[in-house]
Amino acid sequence: MREESLSYPKLKEQFSDVLLVSDSKKKEVRIVKGIGKDKELQTVVPDKKNESQFLRVDKQGDLFSNFFSNFYRQLKDPTHFIFFRVPENQAIHIAERMQKEVDKPTKMGGKQFEQHQIKLDYKPENKNNMETKQSMPVVGEYRYKLEQIDWKAMSNLGLGKERLEKMNLLEPLLKGYKTNELVPVSLDLGTSITRMDARLSLQEKENGQVVLAIHGIRKEPQLNYKFFGHEFTKEDKENLLKSGNMGRVVDLINPKSGETIPSIISIDRLTKEVIALRTEQIKIPEEIKGIKLNEQQKRTLTEGKSLYIEDMMSKKGDPFNASVQFNADKRYVEFLFDRPDTNKQSQSQQKEAPQVFRGKELDELQHQKLKDGQTVYVSGLVDKKGKEYQGYITFDKETAKTGFSFDNPNQLKEKATPKEESKTQVAVNSEGKTNEATKKIKEPLKSEQNNPESAKQQEQQDKPKAAAKSKGRKM
């Protein structure tokens, strides 16, 4: 069974969070850059000009846990640091808010950052053990070692070490993934040479020998034959051909041991190979694009079904809705933007009120009110330009949709009612609209601003428009 077959996620999708750190000695909140040669933590000021230096971390739960455990234990003195994991597009804004809380602590201020804190039990090791461990490289994220590969056999396929490194394929292979792209392979059969495109992976045989697996391109997936004891139904075939995922758990039979293995099934979209994955190896993240998953949603994904999620936040800070589903080939939850829904009935049953709205986590009272059909006032929402705004949200149980309004839909006169200026701020910063009184100001509007607030901004606003250049032809 090809349950060991994996693909290597694209870096821009795999790495989407960054690490913030609060230093209890220096009373600073900064963004992590890495670890120096002397095991000292390297950080940068949280601003736009340092974005290229931010340490990006894996968004998948298990991979991140392994990375952070190794990272934490490499630090020279980690005990006075508190680490936070935040979405990349919100990192600078959250860091600024944390710094304000460090400078002037409030009773409730710290609680809003608890959702981002990374909690890890740390036990200092004795010096002898530390000296021994520090001299050894951290290799926990690699499944195979270079010396396990038969390089002579690889060279016969036209795949030497230097070529794999140049194509950026060696690292994903050592981590146990399939290459994320097709690779030209030459097979020298003595009397003839065959050339083909295929995905590659390393696999370990029963005797411990590591061999190269070549996943050639098929004309179409083999769905008319039994797959480890499972016979594909008409619905199974339709789902696999439309979305690439079968959408349910089935029992597969290991032909050697006779073991029954509950599994999900997907199609490798590059090679058309049928891939199975044990359900025990499915790892569902705690949240997806700012939306915290409840137990029912996690169970839906674990069962191989698709799940429709609303009000997720893109990297640009834009809210969006999409279906997601766990892919057996990729081994992570993927978005189904360009593929038909394979589980509409399941989606229609997801009528739980959201716990996170536009990246803002609701407290227990707010969430309960939303579940009860009440209108909830929410502050601390952030627009595209990083400025805060506030408003009211409602939840429709029948359609499972969350609504937002600047004005209280129930027309209740509350002190927290958003002002007209907040509407101007969001309209200009996020919706691309123009406010006549501030249309020449270059900086994004702040909360409750609808006029120039400084001499510099007033000068920008009063500056006359340059006369248009003549477009007449020369005679």
Automatic annotation (TrEMBL):
Biased composition (Basic residues): 466-475
Region (Disordered): 401-475
Polar residues biased stretches: 447-458
Residue span, DUF4099 domain: 144-225
Domain DUF3945: 285-338, 357-407
Superkingdom in the source lineage: Bacteria
Name the record gives this protein: DUF3945 domain-containing protein
Lineage: Bacteria, Pseudomonadati, Bacteroidota, Flavobacteriia, Flavobacteriales
